Each structure stands twice: as C-alpha cells, then as structure tokens.
Prior knowledge:
Blueprint lengths: L17 E3 L5 H10 L3 E8 L2 E7 L6 E6 L10 E6 L2 H10 L8 E3 L12 E3 L10 E6 L5 E6 L15 H19 L7 H13 L4 H15 L6
Parallel strand pairs: 1-4, 5-9
Antiparallel strand pairs: 2-3, 3-4, 6-7, 6-8, 8-9
Amino acid sequence: METTKMAKTGTVDMKLEVILLSVSDVDRSKAFYQNLGWRLDADFAADDFRVMQMTPPNSGTSVIFGTGVTKAKPGSADLVLAVKDINDARDDLIARGVNVSEVFHYAAGPFNNTGEAPRVSGRDPEGRSYFSFVSFEDPDGNEWLVQEIPTRLPGREWVQTADVASLAELLHETEQHHGQYESTHAKHNWWDWYAPYLNARQNGSVAEEASAVADRYMDEVLHVPSR
C-alpha cells in the first residue's frame, strides 16, 4: 500500500544573515567600515582566499567581503541601512569623516529612481517613516542608502518567541560573573549589575567584555565602592 508523506506545516525561520560585498582592497575596506563603528566578526585568510565579516551596530545582518568571496564587480552594490533619526545618523557620519549626501526624499516615493530628478532635496515634507534618506559610498563606490524609520508600519516586525532555555542559561552565567564582583564590592542591588551585563551580552560582547561593562557602570555611574 502506497503512503503519502505529508508536508510539515508552519514556517521555518530564515533570517537574512549576510550580504556579500565586492571590494578591490580588503584592508582599505576594513578600515573604512571599522571607522563607521562596525563590529569586526571575522578576518580569516588561507592561500588566495580571505574573508572579512563586519556588522553594523545592533544589526542582525552582516556584510562579508574579501578575496575570492564573490565574482561581483567592486562598487556594484546598492544597500540600505535603517536608522531612527536621519539627522543624527548624518551628523555621526560627518564626524567620522564620511562624505555623506544632504538629506533627501524621492519625488515618487521611496526607492523610485524613475524620472529625470528622482531625488528631491530635504526631508519628506510629511515627516513619514521610510521616506527620508541620506547616502554615502565606500572606497569602491558601493552605495549605502540610510533610511529613516522611527516607526514601522503594522506587520513589519516579526514577533519574537523567547527561548526560555537560552535565557535561563544566560541568567545563570550572569549570576556567576556577578558573584565575582559582589565578593569585592560593597552591598548593592544585584539587578543594577545584571542589567548592563545582559545588555552587553545580547549585543554581541563576550562574557569578559560584558563583565567589564557592568563593573564600569557600577563604579562610574552608581559609585559602588570596593571593600
């Protein structure tokens, strides 16, 4: 008797993890993106292959570039970064020495490059999310659009389900590292140390870095004395 295998229902998580970027000088690009404050995740070389992974602050998606990574032409990419405040983002880029455009919006709506003059100087007149931009290029001419999104439209964010086991493991780790601080400092609220530690770990810091962040917060902000 022939049986039919039923397909599983539901959706498999598929997160956009990495975008491949073509560059002509790996070290020059590494310096450029580090100057933007991007995190260096990997720099691995073997024979004629080199891979560099970097991640914008608080981004769930990284870029990878290097030697032997992609056949795309350097400078051929158009990519988008999202920020809460376009003016703050522009000021930060200028402070880092980046040649960034003036704020603009699209005459016919976001990303619509049709027409003779698709980009119009100034913020979106109605102040809408998704409508105001600046742009800059990396040393190879890969263009980055920076899009202002202070408020997302309904349905534009995935509802995250907490991983209870992972959270429990992280809390246990936090308790262990806090114990080291607690043994050498005066009485304090444990949650004041936990908060910066957990925040640092969830933003990519290793345990030692997170401990240092929490220690600094307690010493410099709350002024908890040593024993």
